[in-house]
Amino acid sequence: LVAGFKSKIAASEKASGVVESHTEMDDLLANVAELAAEEEERKAEKTAEKEAKERDNERADGMRDEAMKGMKKRKTKGDILPALIEHVRERDEFNREIAIRTVANEENRLALERERLELEKKERAAFIQLLGSLTTKLLVPQ
Protein backbone atom coordinates (compact mmCIF):
# COMPACT_ATOMS: atom_id res chain seq x y z
CA LEU A 1 0.00 0.00 0.00
CA VAL A 2 2.75 2.42 0.98
CA ALA A 3 4.70 1.76 -2.22
CA GLY A 4 1.55 2.34 -4.26
CA PHE A 5 0.89 5.53 -2.33
CA LYS A 6 4.43 6.79 -2.95
CA SER A 7 4.11 6.11 -6.68
CA LYS A 8 0.72 7.87 -6.67
CA ILE A 9 2.29 10.90 -4.96
CA ALA A 10 5.17 10.91 -7.45
CA ALA A 11 2.73 10.76 -10.36
CA SER A 12 0.61 13.48 -8.77
CA GLU A 13 3.65 15.74 -8.43
CA LYS A 14 4.50 15.26 -12.10
CA ALA A 15 0.96 16.11 -13.22
CA SER A 16 0.39 19.78 -13.92
CA GLY A 17 -2.75 21.63 -12.95
CA VAL A 18 -4.81 18.55 -12.23
CA VAL A 19 -6.61 18.51 -8.90
CA GLU A 20 -6.91 14.97 -7.62
CA SER A 21 -9.25 13.74 -4.93
CA HIS A 22 -7.72 13.30 -1.52
CA THR A 23 -9.06 10.46 0.61
CA GLU A 24 -8.73 9.44 4.20
CA MET A 25 -6.69 6.46 2.97
CA ASP A 26 -4.21 8.92 1.45
CA ASP A 27 -3.90 10.67 4.81
CA LEU A 28 -3.36 7.40 6.63
CA LEU A 29 -0.78 6.21 4.10
CA ALA A 30 1.01 9.55 4.35
CA ASN A 31 1.13 9.12 8.13
CA VAL A 32 2.48 5.57 7.76
CA ALA A 33 5.15 6.76 5.32
CA GLU A 34 6.13 9.58 7.68
CA LEU A 35 6.33 7.21 10.66
CA ALA A 36 8.48 4.79 8.65
CA ALA A 37 10.86 7.61 7.71
CA GLU A 38 11.07 8.74 11.34
CA GLU A 39 11.79 5.17 12.44
CA GLU A 40 14.61 4.88 9.88
CA GLU A 41 16.04 8.18 11.12
CA ARG A 42 15.81 7.00 14.73
CA LYS A 43 17.61 3.76 13.86
CA ALA A 44 20.35 5.69 12.08
CA GLU A 45 20.78 7.98 15.10
CA LYS A 46 20.89 4.99 17.43
CA THR A 47 23.52 3.30 15.26
CA ALA A 48 25.60 6.49 15.17
CA GLU A 49 25.37 6.81 18.95
CA LYS A 50 26.39 3.18 19.38
CA GLU A 51 29.38 3.62 17.08
CA ALA A 52 30.43 6.78 18.93
CA LYS A 53 30.15 4.96 22.24
CA GLU A 54 32.25 2.09 20.90
CA ARG A 55 34.91 4.56 19.69
CA ASP A 56 34.89 6.24 23.10
CA ASN A 57 35.21 2.86 24.82
CA GLU A 58 38.12 1.91 22.55
CA ARG A 59 39.77 5.24 23.28
CA ALA A 60 39.23 4.71 27.01
CA ASP A 61 40.71 1.21 26.77
CA GLY A 62 43.74 2.63 24.98
CA MET A 63 44.14 5.36 27.57
CA ARG A 64 43.76 2.80 30.35
CA ASP A 65 46.36 0.51 28.76
CA GLU A 66 48.79 3.40 28.35
CA ALA A 67 48.19 4.47 31.93
CA MET A 68 48.75 0.94 33.14
CA LYS A 69 52.01 0.72 31.18
CA GLY A 70 53.07 3.98 32.73
CA MET A 71 52.08 2.73 36.17
CA LYS A 72 54.13 -0.46 35.70
CA LYS A 73 57.20 1.57 34.81
CA ARG A 74 56.74 3.87 37.76
CA LYS A 75 55.95 1.00 40.08
CA THR A 76 59.41 -0.37 39.59
CA LYS A 77 60.78 2.99 40.61
CA GLY A 78 58.55 3.04 43.71
CA ASP A 79 56.68 6.12 42.47
CA ILE A 80 53.10 4.76 42.19
CA LEU A 81 51.07 7.47 43.94
CA PRO A 82 51.63 10.27 41.37
CA ALA A 83 50.84 7.85 38.54
CA LEU A 84 47.64 6.77 40.25
CA ILE A 85 46.61 10.38 40.85
CA GLU A 86 47.29 11.24 37.20
CA HIS A 87 45.32 8.19 36.06
CA VAL A 88 42.33 9.14 38.21
CA ARG A 89 42.55 12.73 36.96
CA GLU A 90 42.58 11.59 33.30
CA ARG A 91 39.70 9.21 33.93
CA ASP A 92 37.63 11.93 35.58
CA GLU A 93 38.42 14.37 32.75
CA PHE A 94 37.37 11.78 30.18
CA ASN A 95 34.14 11.02 32.06
CA ARG A 96 33.40 14.75 32.30
CA GLU A 97 33.88 15.16 28.55
CA ILE A 98 31.53 12.26 27.86
CA ALA A 99 28.91 13.68 30.23
CA ILE A 100 29.15 17.09 28.54
CA ARG A 101 28.79 15.52 25.08
CA THR A 102 25.85 13.42 26.27
CA VAL A 103 24.07 16.49 27.63
CA ALA A 104 24.79 18.45 24.44
CA ASN A 105 23.46 15.60 22.28
CA GLU A 106 20.32 15.34 24.39
CA GLU A 107 19.78 19.11 24.19
CA ASN A 108 20.16 18.96 20.40
CA ARG A 109 17.73 16.06 20.20
CA LEU A 110 15.19 17.92 22.33
CA ALA A 111 15.58 21.08 20.24
CA LEU A 112 14.99 19.10 17.05
CA GLU A 113 11.96 17.43 18.63
CA ARG A 114 10.57 20.84 19.63
CA GLU A 115 11.07 22.11 16.07
CA ARG A 116 9.35 19.04 14.65
CA LEU A 117 6.39 19.46 17.00
CA GLU A 118 6.14 23.16 16.17
CA LEU A 119 6.11 22.36 12.44
CA GLU A 120 3.40 19.77 12.97
CA LYS A 121 1.40 22.34 14.93
CA LYS A 122 1.76 24.88 12.12
CA GLU A 123 0.75 22.27 9.54
CA ARG A 124 -2.38 21.42 11.52
CA ALA A 125 -3.25 25.11 11.93
CA ALA A 126 -2.82 25.71 8.20
CA PHE A 127 -4.95 22.68 7.42
CA ILE A 128 -7.67 23.84 9.81
CA GLN A 129 -7.57 27.31 8.27
CA LEU A 130 -7.84 25.78 4.80
CA LEU A 131 -10.81 23.67 5.88
CA GLY A 132 -12.44 26.74 7.44
CA SER A 133 -12.03 28.81 4.29
CA LEU A 134 -13.31 25.97 2.12
CA THR A 135 -16.30 25.51 4.43
CA THR A 136 -17.00 29.24 4.33
CA LYS A 137 -16.87 29.28 0.53
CA LEU A 138 -19.12 26.27 0.28
CA LEU A 139 -21.68 27.59 2.77
CA VAL A 140 -21.82 31.18 1.51
CA PRO A 141 -24.42 31.49 -1.28
CA GLN A 142 -23.03 32.97 -4.46
What does this structure look like?
- Residues 40-69 have a biased composition (Basic and acidic residues).
- With 142 residues, the chain is an all-alpha fold.
- It has one domain (2-110).
- 89% of the residues lie in helices and 0% in strands.
- It contains 3 helices and no strands.
- It has helices at 2-14, 24-77, 80-139.
- α2 (24-77) runs antiparallel to α3.
- The longest helix has 60 residues, at 80-139.
- The protein is elongated.
Secondary structure topology:
Elements: H1 2-14, H2 24-77, H3 80-139
Category by helix and strand content = mainly alpha
Largest sheet: none
Give the DSSP E fraction (strand runs of 2 or more residues). Answer: under 5%
Helical content stands at over 70%
Number of helices: 3
How would you sum up the global shape?
elongated
| Secondary structure: number of strands | 0
Subunit organisation of the chains = single chain
Order of helices and strands: HHH
The residue-averaged pLDDT reads 84
**The number of domains:** 1
* Poorly predicted parts: none
The span between the termini is 40 Å
Rounded to an integer in angstroms, the radius of gyration calculated over CA atoms is 28 Å
State the main characteristics.
142 residues; mainly alpha; 89% helix; elongated
Give a nutshell description of this structure.
The protein is mostly helical and 142 residues long.
